[in-house]
Each structure stands twice: as structure tokens, then as C-alpha cells.
Amino acid sequence: MAAYYASKIGLRLKASHLLANASRACCRLGDSDRAQKLADVTENIIKSQMKPTDVFSYQEAILAEVNLARGERLLLIDGSLTEALKLFLLSLKGAIYLGFTRLIAENFYNIARVCDRLRTSKLKFAMLLAKHFEKELFSKEDLELFDATKGWERTQVATKTMKFLDNIDLDADWETIANLFKAEAKSIWHQWYAEANPGKEGNHPIEDAIDSYKFLCRLK
Length: 220
Known about the structure:
71% helix
């Protein structure tokens, strides 16, 4: 309903954000068909808002929420772990480009839980990481153009994320990789808790849910 009215008053990107979240909710409820249809509609709306002057990196980045939704369907319903991981890495790249902190945190967590389930896989995480994250994450020209036309600022979390990815031991096993991404996801939620509760000891409830892989899990 909110997406419908957002679209009616011209807020089509807001509508796409709401539809992407609806797709993710359907996924957690086990409704694969509806989750897929909502993701498709979301992607169509976003692409309709793209302009010929938008750089490719931006066009790829604004599909981050769609890629996250599609990845969660592959993980939670289809059990296609490798394909889900590819989409989470693509979504993470877009989230970094946009400085979208919550999406960075959720992709960290999703990557962690996929890696945890790939413990016995002979596939190497480094191969998938290299496919989506080249040595220089974005070209200098892309960053300058995007900064000038979209008002983008590289957030502290986005900068930290790029450093984290650069420092990953590419020879590490899947379990180690999972723990690394899980820790990064928790650190973002802990930072939000600390900012909301200055001087107070404790953890964000989401941190515990991340530890047990019960955050954003399938409900039925």
C-alpha cells in the first residue's frame, strides 16, 4: 500500500525501496513466487528512473536492494548458495558506492551465513571476491562524476568496508571468512547501539541474532 501511494505521488524510487523490502518479507515467509515478482517489479521501476548521463557504476549500484532481495530468495528458499553469494557481493559493492550503511551491514551478515554453509565447498572465496571487487573498487573518474552529480559522500563505514575487503586473507577457509564478515556486521550494529546509548555498556539485540544466524531468517 505504501509503495502504491509513493508511486502515485511520483516517488518512484521510494516505491522501489518499499517493494524490495516487501520481496524480502515474502522470501522470509517462504513465498518464492511473490518474492520473485516483487523483485522484478522493483528492478523495472529502478531502471525506468535511470538517465543516459548516469555512470555505469551508479546504474549498477542502485540495484543493490534488488540484488539483496534476489540473493536472500536464493539462500533461504532455493538453497543456491554460490549464486546467492554472488548477488550479495554485487549488492555490497553497490551499497559501498552509495554509502548505504544498513545495506552494507545486511550484506556482511548474508555473506557470513552463506560462507558458514559453504564450509566443505572446494570453491574459493577469493575467486568470487575478485570477480566483483577489482584492485581499485571504483575508477577515479566514476567517483568524481558521481560525487559531482549525486552529492555522494564516502561514509566512514563505506571507507572501513573497503579497507576490510582489501585486508582479507584470500587463503582463509570458509569458516574463517564467515567469522570475519559476521564480526564486521556486528560492529556496525554495535556502533549504532553505542551512538544511541552513550556511556552505556551492552550490545544491540541484533548482534545476538547475528551470532546465532537467526537474524533475517526464514519464518516458515
